[in-house]
Structure formats: C-alpha cells, structure tokens
Amino acid sequence: MNAKTNIKQRLPSRHVTEGPARAPHRSYFYAMGLTTEQIHQPFVGVASCWNEAAPCNIALMRQAQAVKKGVAHAGGTPREFCTITVTDGIAMGHDGMRSSLPSRECIADSVELTVRGHAYDALVGLAGCDKSLPGMMMAMVRLNVPSIFIYGGSILPGNFRGQQVTVQDMFEAVGKHSVGAMSDEDLDEIERVACPSAGACGAQFTANTMATVSEAIGLALPYSAGAPAPYEIRDAFCMTAGEKVMELIDQNIRPRDIVTRKALENAAAVVAASGGSTNAALHLPAIAHECGIKFDLFDVAEIFKKTPYVADLKPGGRYVAKDMFEVGGIPLLMKTLLDNGFLHGDCITVTGRTIAENLKSVKWNPHQDVVHPADKPITVTGGVVGLKGNLAPEGAIVKVAGMSNLRFTGPARCFDREEDAFEAVQNRTYREGEVIVIRYEGPKGGPGMREMLQTTAALTGQGMGGKIALITDGRFSGATRGFCIGHVGPEAAIGGPIGLLEDGDIIEIDAVAGTLNVKLSDQELAQRKTKWSARATNHTTGALWKYAQQVGPAVGGRSPIRAVRTRNSAMRTSRRAIVAFVLGASALAVPALAFDGAPVNQKDATIPVVTTLPGAAGAVRSKVPPATQETSLSALQYAAEGGHPIAQWKLGRMYANGDGVAQDDVRAFEYFSRIANAHAEDSPSAPQAQIVANAFVALGRYYLSGIPNSKIKPDQDRAREMFSYAASYFGNADAQYDLARLYLKTPDASREDFRYGARWLGLAAQKGQHEAQALLGQMLFNGDRLPRQAARGLMWLTLARDSTGSEETWIKESYNRAFAKASDDDRAMCLQMLEQWVQGRRE
C-alpha cells in the first residue's frame, strides 16, 4: 500500500472511489477523463461563485483554474463546481435586494450539499461579492473539512476628470442629479468610467470588509485578500492555495481549529480598525453560529468600542483597497494592531502557523498614510459603534468612521418601506434635522433585510449627509456615509419599538455613550403596543417566504441552517395512515395486558366518560422549564414569529398557564397550531420532535373542551385526530394515553373501541406515562373489562404512585385501595414483577 492509498483510507472520498462496490462510481470518473491515479488521490472541491451578473464575480472562473493547478501539482484531484451569487450593486434599490441576505444561506447550503453529496475531502472556496464571502466561510466551518478561502479581489478605482471614483460616487451622483447639481451629460460620463475592471467594490464596503475578515480570522493566506482582481499575482495566490490545502489534509487542520472565539475577536478588531461595513456585525455572528460559538452583535460592538480606527479607507476615508494592498496590505494593518495588543497572536491559520508567526516578518512602512500606527490612530475607538436603548432593546449599529459629530437629536419622520423614503428624498419633502425612520425592512419584515444605500447616497448627494439622521431595522451598504443606524431590534414586523414610532417623536442618538432612545415613557410605548398589529406580507410562497418563517433576529446575525417541509394544515392528517398504525399496534405483544384469547369481562367499569382532559398546558407539564421573569417576552415573540418551535411552545405554555402573562387560551392555541402546521412531518428523531408532539396533544385537549367565547368549539373528532397523529407518528406517550381514554369511554358509545383503547393504554404505560399506568393498574386489579390480574395491576399502580405529583391524589388513593385489598401472594408477586420491570429497563 503506497502513501496515497494509505491517506485515502481515512478520507471521505474513499466512499466513492475505493473497493469493488464503487466500480459504478469510478466509471463516471473515467468518463470525465480521470486516470486511475487521479481517482485514488484526495478529492478537493473548488467552489466558485462565478456569474455574469456583475464585475465582482467575472474573474473567479480564471482564478479557479489556478487553484486547480495548485491542487493537482500537490497530488490532489480538483473537482470544480459553482454556486450562486446575488450581487448587491444590481439588486440595490428595488425588490431584488430582498434576495441578497437570504442568498448567503443558499450559498452555504449549496456548497455544503455538494461537498457532502460527492464526498470531497477538502475545499477551496472563491467568492467575490458581499454575501458570497460570508456564505462561503459559513460553509467551510459547517463542513469542517480542510479549507482555504480565496477572495476574487477588488475592482480598480475609476477616474472621473482626474478624481478617483467608486460605485459609491455613482449612487451619490444620483442624489446630486436629483437636485440639479449634476447634469444628464455628467451623469452619463461618470457611469461609464466609475467601474473600469473586474472585481468587487473597491472601498471598504462589505466585500472588502469580509475579505479583510478572511485573513484576520485565519481562513485565507496572508496578503491574498488585498490584491485587486486584475492583478496577475492573484493567480499566484490561487495556485498556492491549491497546494496549501493539500498540506492541510496531511496536517488534519480544519476550519473549526482555526475559527475560535479569539479568531472571531481578531476579525472584529480588524473590521473596526479599517472602518469596515456594519454588515460584519451580521456575518461574524453567523460564522460563529456555524461553529457553535456564541458571538453576537453585542460581542462585536464590545470589540469595536476598544479598537482604534487606523485605516483611512473609503467610504469614511480617502483610500481604496488597491491603495492599502500597495503599501503593505492587510498584514500591515494587522501588524500594528498586534504590536499594540489589539489582536490575539496565538490563533492558528491556514498556513499552519499562528497569526504572530505569519506577521513576524512584516515591517512597518513609514512612507504611507493609508494605515496609521495603532498608537496614533485616526480615532481611538473603532469605526463602527453598537447602540442600545428603549428604541433598540436588542441593539443597533452605526458606522462612525469619518464622522465628526457623534450625537444627533431630532423628530421622527416614519416610512414603512424604503421606496417611500427614497421618493420623499428625491422630491425633497423632508426637513433638515429630521430623523428618517425606515421600518418593516428587517430580516422577517422585509423579508430579507434590504440595504438602504440608494436613500443614504441620495441624501449625501444632496448635501444633507450631516444634517439628517436615518434609522432602520434593515441594514446599510458598506458604502453608506452619514449618521445611519441599522439593525435596530426587535424589528417592526414583530412589534419592536421602531414599529411604534409616530411622526414627530423625538429621537436621541448618542454614538459616544452608545445609546438610541425615543423620548417616550414606558407607559406610552406599552399603550401604543396594545394598538399595534402585525402587517400582512406579499411573500406567501417561495424562498423569501421560507426565509421569513425561519430567520432569527439580527442581533444574532444568524439565519436558520435547517429547512423544513411545511403543510397548509398538518392537523388534517391521513386517517388511513393512523388506522394502519393502530392495526399494526394491535398485533404487538404487550405483556401487561396478557391478551391470550381469554374472554374479556364485559361488565361496565369505572372508566370515566371522556368529555374533557387536563388543560392544554398540562400536555407537557414539567417537560419544558417554565419561563422566568427574566425571560425577554419580546425576544421569545421574535423567535416565535421567526418560526422557532421552542419559542412558540414556551409562549403557548405561558399563555395557557398564565405564567408571566395574562392567561389567553386563544393565543396559546394559535402558537400550538403554528408548531403543528409547520413541523408535522419533521422526523420523529429530530431534536424538536417531542415539542411538536406535545403541541398536537395540547391542541387535542383544547378541542375536547373547546375555548369559551372563541371559534374553538368542542370537537371530539378533531381531538381524536390530534391525539392519533402524535401517538402514531411521534410515539408520544401522553397522546397515547389521551387517545386510549377516548376509545375506552366516550359520550357516543358507537365510537368506543375497547381493544384499541387498551392497546394504546398499554403502549403509554410501557413508556412510563404514569396516568396510563394508574388507569391500566385499576382495570387489571379490578378486572374492569379485562381478566383480573391483581398482582400485575398492583405493579402498574405502584409504578404510577412512585412517579406521580402531589396534585394527582386519585392515583395514590387508587394504589392505597388496591394495596389494602391485595393478598400476601399478590403483593409478593407484584414485587417480583417490579424487579423484572426494573431489570428490563436497565437492559
């Protein structure tokens, strides 16, 4: 066995290349021209976000070929594939921007599925536009196969009459044109020269910010993120990345070895020091989430607060990415931060060395003013600041790089979508000193959390950048300038304070103190909340609808990584399927019932008529910890509106019990219904499966008794349907017990089915459902419609007594009566049965 074969035996690709059973798979590889040697080498996925939507991505295909050469040169077999990109510069200013942030998840998911599906051993990912960079890095840490990230590079600056320009100047030119400060001819001229090459937006907007992150976090090779797209050196970086990823396979260095909390803190520090995009406060927590690391907006903001702003980059400064690369690149910036104690030097990187080791040979360049020394910064705090207050209980963020006035107070001017705000700016129907509020643009409300660049750029173009403030539950482009606060949470769509604002409310912004408040009392905000109602959405199907159902709050930066199938009405389950399950269950041997063909005692038993069962909240009492007073109701509501079943369950339980909120069975019913509708077909082994089953049980109990003064009327058929689904599909013991009671005795004698009821009762008892154990014990001890088995009945009653709570006195009373009536032989046999039960559970 040679070295290559030996390493192959521990790699994922062995599942598609090795052994006689994989001959069909190998035939596919031979069809594509691979040699036997190439088939038995490690497989490296080369993922590219190439498309022709914008210049950001058009250089990626060329660079991917260089990566493939590097992989092959180092003894690997490259496998190239593409994923999507939604380019913000094209999506900006219209409904297409709703697709931008959701595309990040699509990129991560598609790369993950491709790598897993084809059993690739490693990954080199190339990305060139805003959301593709974090999406690719999210895929890397999620997969946790040896990986290297490659940025496609930035665009070169344009030249308009001797002045360097970027796409930021184009958006601001629209504002100038709207007030007559730029002619049609000038606008036509600048649009033809602003973007002269391939590459992403050239200033420290989102793409370059996340490129900077890729080096700082350790997933990219040093210097590789700074070189502009047209530079030939990019091909050299790509070839080296292909070679280096093969070393990572040998060394078994994986992304989660690299992306630690310290590495995330390094990334946040470099964002702050470079005056980077506020979008980093979305993407860094998302990357952290993929690693299982808690690192949210407030963690990012804390790093921003203590990191100096040292890189004089546009949009807040004077230079572009090309300029920083030519004076020393991102390593120069990181070197001064490390030397002054703002970075963790011991973090490992894709080079196999630490940050400190990578930067050891970097010398300070005194002949430039793009990057200032960290001990002589442009400002002593980072270019991005976190805010919090009664208008943003879950936080907000503002980019202050290049700003001189860090406080603003003014009356609110409210708009419920960006288009309306942009129209007001275009028509100049706003007033100087106002705070323009753009809401219902958050992750859920948008959906998609659109960027507001066209509005902010138009304001800057009109000369109002420092005379107007703007706040939104959406987000801003990295190209945004001015006093612009984004990511305000909770968002308007779930009743956050930003949705309660009215024109004229006085808003106070203090980026020094880190506060964002509206001059309203808590009582006034609470009063407005009672009148607020959620808005309908136009997105009722497709990817955006799914995103809106599942997305989390902006404070955590994360969107769901699990897609679920949903049904219009999960409660309308297939009766055929349920009957099939029950018929199958009737063939099971349940020793406790001793169904051996003996005649059944048909005398009327003491089984109560089932007209109601314990309240819905009792469906899972003690299975989910009760909410505490410290629990943020708004945070739970936000998560519930985003489709999180645990939050929906907790809220349903709170309203059913009156736990910390006014009891409201209708609202509880609504939350349980959402869970059932969205998750009816989740796998019974899924982490949330029992919560889903409990929701069905709660709904069944509500249908038994109905809810007074509501549309929910007593409906035994619907109750039976709820219990049947939870009992059969999820195997829920509470549902099996409730279903058993329905079959054993109902007001409609024609619906009784003792045999089915007894079987369900036996299944629930075997699973430890103590009420089922008690009822079954009563029936067996007394011989109620079953052959009398006193010892076995006493055994079930004993188990039930040991599991019951103090409020369930009927179980203890039943046990006491049975124990008093039992003979010594019955008690002795019961003890033997209990020992057998315990032993069986252990095994």
Automatic annotation (TrEMBL):
Write out the entry's keywords from A to Z. Answer: 2Fe-2S, Amino-acid biosynthesis, Branched-chain amino acid biosynthesis, Iron, Iron-sulfur, Lyase, Magnesium, Metal-binding
| Pathway listed | Amino-acid biosynthesis; L-isoleucine biosynthesis; L-isoleucine from 2-oxobutanoate: step 3/4; Amino-acid biosynthesis; L-valine biosynthesis; L-valine from pyruvate: step 3/4
- InterPro entries attached here? DHAD_IlvD/Edd (IPR050165), Dihydro-acid_dehy_C (IPR042096), DihydroxyA_deHydtase (IPR004404), DiOHA_6PGluconate_deHydtase_CS (IPR020558), ILV_EDD_C (IPR056740), ILV_EDD_N (IPR000581), IlvD/EDD_N (IPR037237), Sel1-like (IPR006597)
Q: Does the keyword Iron-sulfur apply?
A: yes
Under which EC number(s) is this enzyme classified? Answer: 4.2.1.9
Residues given in the record as Mg(2+) binding sites: D88, D130, K131, E451
Please report the name of this protein according to its UniProt entry: Dihydroxy-acid dehydratase
Q: What organism is this sequence from?
A: Bradyrhizobium diazoefficiens
